[in-house]
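Q: I'm writing up a methods section and want to include an example of the input and output format. Could you take the sequence below and give the corresponding predicted structure tokens, formatted cleanly so I can copy it straight into the document?
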Amino acid sequence: MRSSYSLALLVCMVACAAPNDVDFDPVLQAGDGERLRYLKEVEWSAAYREQDTVLLDRILHDDFQMIDDEGNTFSKADELDWIKKNEWAVDSFRYEIKRLETWPNGTAIVSGVGHMLNDSKETIYCSSNVFIKTEGMWRAVSSHVSGVKEVPR
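A: Here is the clean output for your methods example:
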């Protein structure tokens, strides 16, 4: 009887001390939102502007797929090849984040509006980007672009 009581008490103590799934999150860390914001607002456009394949390779997951505004799909290899061969000719660019959300399983969505100025013309587009956190790094697995249009200035 005494051993049953001791076992029940031990089980109760372990259960009470175990982390609650809602509160315990081994994947997300403080600063993840800021890291994603910097990655999307600064690094991603810098990779294209500077034709930096090393930086873009780090940003894009090996399973990355982009869908452009015409419904065409492109892989990570396609994007790396494109920036090697094409200069991104814009006078200025900024990305305005409208949604940035992370989930406990290490996924995130960053969506917003890109603003490109070139020769006094402004072009805007919307994009949705899905990121996963692997080995402590946020990497893009999907990007969808839509609504590309020139805006009167």
